[in-house]
Amino acid sequence: MSERTSPAIVVIGSGFAGLGMAIRLRQQGFHDFVVLEKSEALGGTWHDNTYPGCACDVPSHMYSYSFELNPGWSRMFAPQPEIRAYMEATADKYRVRDHIRFGASVDSMEWDDAGGRWNVTLADGDVLRPKAIVTGVGALHIPSFPDLPGMERFQGASFHSAEWDHDVDLTGRRVAVVGTGASAIQFVPQVAKKASKVVLFQRTAPWIQPKPDRPIPAPVRTLFDKVPGAARAFRAGIYWALEARAVSFAVSPSLAGPMKKLAMSHLNKQVADPELRAKLTPDYTIGCKRVLLSNDYYPALTRDNVELDTSGVAEVREHSIVTRDGVEHEVDVIVYGTGFKVTDALTEMRVTGRDGVKIQEVWAEGIEAHHGTTVERMPNFFMLLGPNTGLGHNSVVFMIEVQIAHVLSCLRLLQERGMDTIEPRPGAVRSFNDRMHRRLRRAVWNEGGCQSWYLDEHGVNRTLWPGFTFEFWASSRKAKEDEYLLGR
């Protein structure tokens, strides 16, 4: 594709990040862009994840764009089809669907020093030559499978929860579930209603709090729709309630007492059997791993057809799973609810920047970015949901919108200064990340040697923002010119 016909900006992904970027680009007068989506439909993780019970664990009025409030959410925590419908309707309303190129998987991105453009090579061999790239692929799109001996020998159906096989009827089947993360606590109660038996293999018990989910009555939805400011005021109330949850994260783990008390009370009320309750009691500081919300997970584990196994998986055989204590569980189906390759989603990117440097070389000491958005020696390259922009307490859509504002401010700097390229100064990147990681080392995620998917192989948190989201908004919504290198 020639430079004359190639779009000036390439946005990668059409989840909340990519879709929000596309909308804001149009609103700011940038119309020469394309959104590359590897799937055949928009939605990102909300298109990919269709497992039974799939829903958001952040209240829907907060897990949505601030510029496109939805007064019609049916529940406090909307299910996956409703979130997908919201994203589809938003894309249509803001007329960005025509900018999306579906079935366009990006193979590599390489900066052309001489031409001052990126070469974006697609899986089908097509090459785009944009001036700038905004990647919004996020971290929750590469399923992570456990390394269990004999997995390939299993003769029954097996799949990851993020790639749910709806052709497999679980009615009356013996189902093994490996993993007890955010997805598993949603689909296990649904599977338990159909399967003749469910064996849940738990490595680490999660902290679970009650989910304040309920239908939103029609009169309340009408109020949000007809009364100016009502929906926004409700959203603001949710925002500050969620921010309060970060006190033990952002200030001190010693302040986590109320959160732990709520979770333990929830467990004690829903599980009467002391032996089962002991297996479900976490042995680490609350907040160290993601705090989950559920009202039906614990009750599902008390059903007669559900067994919780904590002895650890030793191997998988043709028709069974054998645990480390020698017990063999015969099963027909295995569902892996084992999360995603979070840091790998970034480190495996095929990106080559200025002077031929690969992004893996820039990240030799660990993945990092300036305000989670820009990377040194990568001109006109922007990341949404980049390193240390994830959250354990509030809506990541809020973080996305802050990053989008940062990207737009960088593009405006180029326009106002008549420049062609922008990249962060190495010193600015170092200063920002040093401050952030000093704070992270004192935070709950490193408490007591806690291990989680938040940490990389060196035990460094490359995933989460260490403080309140309003701190990220205050520091990161606008690019500071003295922290960037502008060039022609």
Molecular structure report:
The model has no long low-confidence stretch (mean pLDDT about 95). The two termini are about 25 Å apart. Helix 1 runs parallel beside helix 13 (about 395-415) and helix 13 runs parallel beside helix 15 (about 470-475). It is built from 15 helices and 21 strands. A hairpin with a 4-residue loop joins strand 15 (about 320-325) and strand 16. The protein has helices spanning about 15-25, 45-50, 80-95, 185-195, 220-225, 230-245, 245-250, 255-270, 275-280, 295-300, 345, 360, 395-415, 425-440, 470-475, and strands at about 10, 35, 100, 105-110, 115-120, 125-130, 130-135, 155-160, 175-180, 195-200, 210, 290-295, 305-310, 315, 320-325, 330, 335, 350, 380-385, 420-425, 485. The strands form six sheets. Strands 3-2-1-7-19 form a five-stranded parallel β-sheet, covered by helices on one side. It has a five-stranded parallel β-sheet with strand order 8-17-9-10-13, with helices on one face. About 30% of the residues lie in helices and about 15% in strands. With about 500 residues, it is α/β, with parallel strands linked by helices. The longest helix has 22 residues, at about 395-415.
